[in-house]
Amino acid sequence: MSRQCTHYGRWPQHGFTSLKKLRPQSVTSRIQPGSDVIVCAEMDEQWGYVGAKSRQRWLFYAYDRIRRTVVAHVFGERTLATLERLLSLLSAFEVVVWMTDGWPLYESRLKESCTLSASVTLSALSDII
Q1: What is the pLDDT of residue 21?
Q2: Name one GO molecular function term (predicted).
């Protein structure tokens, strides 16, 4: 028995108005600021686009490698201002070691804390902790 297609070459229209109302949290509720210590956090950014590659969007995030949880995230341009927004969300958390991909803005903003770039392996991390 064949199923007949009713949209005639066009995708069916869905009412995704509920998705527009979503307000996802930018900071996790699984880790309590001030009481839980994040031993090793990875900070990175991901590039994507909406509709056309000229409409770039960047996702900056901090990831707790031990709990396997995204601690905080922000969307914006790949600028210091967006990084500052992420760091302000993370200011309530105590992070022992940061892991980054070596982007100079990470290095300049995290210079007072312990930072490892992508060239350092996790086995070397165990020597530090």
Answers
A1: 56
A2: transposase activity
